[in-house]
Write a structure and sequence with these properties.
- This protein is an alpha+beta fold.
- The protein has a single domain, classed as Cathepsin B, Chain A (Alpha-Beta Complex).
- The protein has six helices and six strands.
- The protein has a six-stranded antiparallel beta sheet, with helices on both faces.
- A hairpin with a 4-residue loop joins strand 3 and strand 4.
Length: 166
Amino acid sequence: MREFIHCQRDIPREKWRYGTRSSAAAGCGWIAVYNALILLGIDPDPEELIRFFLRRLPLIHGTFGTSPLAPAAWFKKKGFAVSHTCRRKKTDLLAKSSDVTLLYYWWRDGWQFGAHFITVRFDGENFIGYNVYANSKEPSVLGPSLESFLKKGKRFFPVAIGVNRK
């Protein structure tokens, strides 16, 4: 079984290119699926995921990453039950009722802004995130509420994708 990717910036620049950019710069979408598969007990193949997402309308051939609902399409194609919400107030309910959740959001820090995908699981008490921060070395405890995590970090326009085994 492969290991989680806790920080996409640790991926060497030339390894697992994502379209016109490195996965370290724009690969959070396929990395969220990769980490979700590990949580589901499936050994992921990074090259297969990258090929799929590059054919599934990545934003300007990977330059701006993966479109928000492309991971849902991948999981549906593989036979998983998938649901999603774009409402911040419904993210907790969706994530608690899912085996694993992919959370896409926009963030702002001063004049800088961008979008990011993370993988999330609920441990019964807190939400645990994978590939959350630029310096993560292990899973991050996000707290008991994804809604609070999103609000607190100036994260907006979320898309939560809940994935369940059939």
